[in-house]
Amino acid sequence: MASVKVVEGEADFPVPTAGKPCKTWYRVYGDLRSGLSPLVVVHGGPGATHEYMENVSHLTYHYGIPVVVYDQLGNGLSTHLPETIGHTEFWTVQLFIDELENLLSHLGIHGNYSLLGQSWGGMLASEFAAQQPEGLKKLIISNSPASMQLWMEATAQLRLQLPQDVQETLNKHEAEGTITDEAYQRATQVFYEHFVCRKVPMPDPVKNSFAWIEKDPTVPMTMRGPNKFLITGSLKTWSVIDKLHKISATTLLINGRYDQVQDSTVEPYFQRIPKVKWVQFAESSHCPNVEETERFMEVVGKFLLQVY
Which position among 144, 259, 284, 285 bears the catalytic label? Predict the structure, then answer.
């Protein structure tokens, strides 16, 4: 495997309402001036970190494509703001769009780059792309719903596929308000093993990213809610469907056969984005970059290098 330069850094991110200086942590694989458009990876959550998506750097080693991973504000190695939990007027989609724009400018790549957004990261990337930013060459929306309403409907249907005792445990504790109970947590894990990451045991990068949600729940609690079933945060009514026709970048759409992001939640992207290709991973759920790594890198790498 070829040697690749790896550089870490922090981008100052001015947020006047934060009450303190903010920084975005990032890591760059490869040479941003190589001539190939860098790929910026936008992780999911909200509230996870770059770790479970870091293997996208395989694209640098195998295809020479520079890759940038970063932790969004409030998450991982970037600035944390626990005092803002519940402040929906602060934690907005636009805040994270502003952060992404700031990072692109800091790295000097705002005139030539591609985006890969996974789960919440794809929701964010689609909103960003609908603003038709200068320099966005290609867009990859991976395992992302086009609206939270569609996502909640699909999740409700997937729960019905779980073993009956697991369903009953979830229903019981949600009705009683005891979702921190160990039995409820175990039942939730069964859902994850079916529809989030089918690799058992769950790979460390995925576990580590999820662990950050427990360490600092500020962003997930404010924007999503206590878990994937109880959506009470500011994203509850989110939808990008009416903006999708504005996306001008050539787009690759990805989901897994067993994905919590079912076809019904992805279809609006396919129907409304003008230049779009949809690839489904037959052996994956929500994390095909981890579950089918080799094929994922091949599909994404070829998409990025192909001239359309």
Answer: 259
